[in-house]
Amino acid sequence: MLLHILGAGSVGSLIAANLRASNALHDIRLIVRTPLQVKELAAIKPSPSWSQADVPGRASTTAQVDEAAEDEPAEATIIVEQSGVTSDYAGLQIEYAGPSSESAARATQSSGSLGPAWTAQLNALRRTIRHTRDDWISSLIVTTKAQYTAEAIYPLRSRLSAYSTIVFLQNGMGILDEINTSLFPDPEDRPSYIVGTLTHGIWRKPSQGRAYRHIVWAAQGELQFGVLPSNPVREVMQVKVNNPALDPTIETAVVPDHLTVTEPDADSLEKTVKALLECQALQPRLNRLATSQMLQLQKLAVNCVINSLTAIFDVRNGRLPDSEQFDGLASDICDELSSVLAADFATRGDVAVEFQTMQEYDRARFPPLHRLAGPTLLANVQLIALQTRKNVSSTLADIRNVSETTEIDYMNGYIAKLGRRHGIPTPVNDMMVRLVKTQLDLRRVATARRQAKAARQASSRRSSSDSV
Ligand SMILES: CC(C)(CO)[C@@H](O)C(=O)[O-]
């Protein structure tokens, strides 16, 4: 089957490598949005004539398209490193879905990341990349950061239908509401969704000019997911009675057979689920939707604590418990989160039945041993911090890369927003958001100053060599 993966960061690369390892017959296509990502992923050697011109800022006189490269499909190779041992996963297709290569090259040229020769090379890539831009997308696995999801799916919108399946594998909450409102307002036209939680610890090694992606799989976790079939897919499901995929009040486990349909064109949900379940090394598990929702909220607590604190203090996950302050801070974040979720569940009609029927749930807080009670969330956070101790959290990675934004608005920011809606103060989570944003601002200013200084030094070196 043809599986599209949107976002070729560490999570996208991990999924692509595992899909490739599990089934050599899959066509796996990485959709990337920047020419730099194409450059990093495509195992295409620039022709020797390009290397000269590939100096940022130097006009290209020799940038011609290598005729041989035109017929050669652009393919990506991903290297996965586990305990120091590396494995290659090749033959992955690349689709460039960003702005035109010319304008992107122009835009990035000033930062020195692409030279004019890359414009030519990207044009060659665009011709050789195996895709037609208007082909229907049956299965789209979204691994872009929460804050970029809507804008990343937007250009693909016309290629998605109610018979497509979108798999969301991201940190943070609030993404589905945003996508439904902005891209799929009509429920009849909405694709099937698979909502997943990934607890593997992974990070990306800087490419250092290599033409391939290298990720480090630092900690083994799980891939747990639940399904939300689209309305038209529900209509054609073979099992109509006692189907837990159709009725969340049925408490039996969901199995792929529950997703079998009578129309062959509507089978993308079943096929996508099977493809994910084949990725044994990811420890995949298909859950009831209620279980999936629960896991997502537990993961939200993990992210609210680990991602914010590692980003603020610039440390790997495992360093956090070194401070005596960690448990107290983590507990304050989890307690606030738990109270906000309890208030939210009291007002929502669409939450998992498990919560609606919970006897002891007094609508202000969860009972002491409940999975969403503050102390239980804290215990889980402490465990994950140790299990992923070598990991650079995704938010810290954003800070270190001086990204435009971080996922913090979909983590602690999501809790703060929900708290405001229910009149529950969230001072600790508010502060985490502000501190992470401050950290990013400071990095951005420091980087800009460093670049300006380097540019000044380069120009004074040039003028002194001109005057010799
Ligand atoms: C589990 C986790 C915190 C591990 O680093 C991960 O979700 C991350 O990096 O965001």
List keywords for this structure.
14% strand, 11 strands, N-(1-d-carboxylethyl)-l-norvaline Dehydrogenase, domain 2, 2 domains, 44% helix, alpha/beta, binds pantoate, 468 residues, 11-stranded mixed sheet, single chain, Rossmann fold
Give a short overview.
By secondary structure, the protein is α/β, with parallel strands linked by helices. The chain has helices at 10-22, 35-41, 48-53, 67-71, 101-109, 116-128, 149-153, 175-182, 231-235, 268-278, 289-313, 326-347, 353-356, 374-387, 394-400, 412-421, 427-467, and strands spanning 2-6, 27-32, 75-82, 85-96, 139-142, 165-168, 192-198, 201-204, 213-219, 223-228, 284-287.
Overview of the molecule:
The chain has 468 residues and is of the alpha/beta class. The chain contains 17 helices and 11 strands. It is globular, with a radius of gyration of 24 Å. Pantoate (PAF) binds at residues 171, 199, 201, 302-303, 306-307, 317, 384, 388, 391, 393-394. GO terms for molecular function: 2-dehydropantoate 2-reductase activity; NADP binding. Residues 4-42, 134-228 form the Ketopantoate reductase N-terminal domain. One of its GO terms (cellular component) is mitochondrion.
